[in-house]
Design brief:
Layout: E1 10-11, E2 30-32, E3 38-48, E4 53-61, E5 70-75, E6 79-82, E7 86-89, H1 93-97, H2 104-109, H3 113-121
Parallel strand pairs: 2-7
Antiparallel strand pairs: 1-3, 2-3, 3-4, 4-5, 6-7
Length: about 140
């Protein structure tokens, strides 16, 4: 696997970009694990502005009124289903909780952060040869 830094990723909220289909905007929805246990809420979407694709969900959990809240980045590849009020992951809450912490300054200082995060969750990084972007997993 390459240790080459991926293209710069940005938070959707920090851009003037919008989602083509407003129904695909999962910000504010609850995130649940493979057992249906609460993981947190989608705070933002981390996107590749060049390819205009969402790469990670930023999920906040814990804390009170935003104080002490822990932020995690979860690859969109981990999402198995999305319904009207929840985003369902194919992993357990304990796995998410033990993932590498998200700190924007850490990401800038550690060029392998995204690669390490993909490796932790067991997915190839989006810049790897042969990577296929996952389809939007709507609830049927």
């Amino acid at each position: 696997m390459t240790v080459e830094s991926p293209k710069a990723l940005v938070h959707l909220v920090d851009t003037d970009l919008t989602l083509a289909d407003p129904d695909d905007d999962v910000r504010g929805r609850a995130v649940v694990d493979s057992n249906g246990d609460d993981v947190g809420d989608v705070d933002d979407l981390v996107i590749d502005p060049n390819e205009r694709k969402v790469r990670f969900l930023q999920v906040g959990s814990g804390g009170f009124l935003g104080i002490g809240e822990k932020k995690q980045l979860i690859p969109v590849d981990a999402v198995v289903r999305v319904d009207d009020d929840k985003v369902h992951l194919g992993t357990k809450r304990t796995r998410v909780a033990a993932a590498p912490a998200y700190d924007p300054e850490l990401v800038e200082q550690r060029p392998t952060y995204y690669e390490d995060l993909y490796g932790y969750y067991g997915y190839p990084p989006f810049w790897a040869p042969g990577y296929v972007y996952p389809p939007f997993p709507r609830n049927m």
